[in-house]
Task: structure prediction
Amino acid sequence: MSEEVKWNKTISDVNNGILANLAKPHPTYYVAWAGAIICLLIGASVWAWEISTGMGITGKTSPVYWGVLITDFVFWVGIGHAGTLISAILFLFRAKWRNTVNRSAEAMTVFAVITAGLFPLIHVGRLWIAPYWMLPLPNTNNLWVNFRSPLVWDVFAISTYLTISLLFWYMGLVPDLASIRDRVKGVKRLVYGIMCFGWRGTATQWHHYEAGYGFLAALATPLVLSVHSIVSWDFAMSIQPGWHTTIFPPYFVAGAILSGCAMVYSLLVPVRKMFRLEEFILAEHLEACIKLTLLTSTIVFYAYGIEFFVAWYSGNPYEWAIFEKRAIGPYAFYFWTMVFCNCVFPLIWWSKRMRNNIAVSLVVAVLINVGMWFERYNIIVSTLAEDFLPGSWGHFQPTWGDIGLTVGSFGWFFFWFLIFCRFFPIVSMSELKLIMPKPFSKKH
Amino acid sequence: MSKRPGGVLAVYRYLDQLTDAMKLIKDRTDFRGHEVFSPTSYHEIEEAGGYGASPVRFFTLAGALTGTTCGFLLALWTDYDWPLVVGGKLAGLYSVPAYVVIGFELTILLGGLMTILGMLVMGRLPNPNQRILDVRFTDDRFGIFVPNASLDGEQAKLLKQCGAEELRIIESE
Result:
């Protein structure tokens, strides 16, 4: 793709162009940051309310013990998928457009997974004893965690994913931090010098760095695909109608990549404006991100269809009842919002003009995020609200507590993401130089 | 003897001039211990330097295999220590399929951590007494540093011939 990309800049413009803009973001940056803090404060107060009052402030009640909080958990883990997909899988495929967006996508991944990790803790209520339920820690009962439980697998999957994403992201930052070190003076120089481990950019360092990056990408590739598969097993390993299906792992992975790519786009467009990166993140790169989103959207569309087909074809009345309830029952609103946002609206991206229309694409990308949240809500709530005991059937409604915690999670995520954008190069400078025209003295 | 010798630093603007110089000096004894600097990881430099396969792969392999072993052993050992018989499913080796997930995750985790360690060890990082010869090497310039050389020597002449835009003396520290 990059063969057709027309660069107006050379590698000599990269450090100046990107670092100079970090220092003075557009005023909207501060507005966004203030907004994030307000949301974060709302979330923190609701969490304090939940801890002091009890789990009743959320909508959780028998039999719906997994409600909005687990929806938020799955949503944020899903968002976290695009980062490592872009940095690892697209690296192995040598997709050049990734070099402009990988840093922001990786930062997004790290903060999204941290946000996701909060939700099981919020969800269990007494989070200070949660480590004993999650990790194999010695305790007075001499009991260990049950390694046959998908929930324990999930703890291992998410913490491994967070660690590897963090390493990937930081490893990419090292040469760029050295670039900052070489531009600043005094204490700042010392701090950036420590953070970059004293990187000197020698050919041998680059040689081992490249080898390490490749191996990390090779390890992270199966990891990306496995994490959301394991999250899907939290559901699929149970015998609940609507959950107990083998399509769940690929279906969840496709959904995660869809929501992640849509989130990358929704973050990239404003960040590109705030930090004046239009000369480096080109329209072609944004369009490539849209193409990936469209691809995963069609896979998700297919998965929705197959899920229905299998529910009908299996001849299992319980399974079919759930699907009927989703489509034309009390959860129809959530279901159709999900279908329109995830499958129907993205279809306009088949038109090249629409893919390149940033305003329209941004709206659709945000709608996909809404749709993906509704998808998780739909899966979790509709299955649980009417179980095998008709006496306990009811309708689940999110409470203000649920909504406050969800708003708070967005505040928490954007708080960290925006801080990151201000102090670290949001475009990977060393990798950007690789896809720009090489500095040859003569035409090759 | 000084720990860090002085020498000649050649700064290049163009990648092809750098790789030309690298190929010429690669095997010459009077250039022994030279260092090449680059703002990013161009494959042309790796080819010209002829570095071969990086030993980082052995770190990755060792970490990954340790992870696999630890993952299975952790799950099996806790299982034998206090069998949790859930739904009539026997503990121990009978449950190995479920432990594949734990084995897999620890393979990736320790493999990844060891890869980073390998990269740091092989790249001599962290490097607290970082000797920055030229700040432009993390921006847009390439460089070759030849220890114990002088500006009027044979080495400097060769570097200049290849197109160095600047040659200067680095004092020993």
Summary: The first strand of chain B starts at residue 7 and ends at 12. Chain B has five helices and four strands.
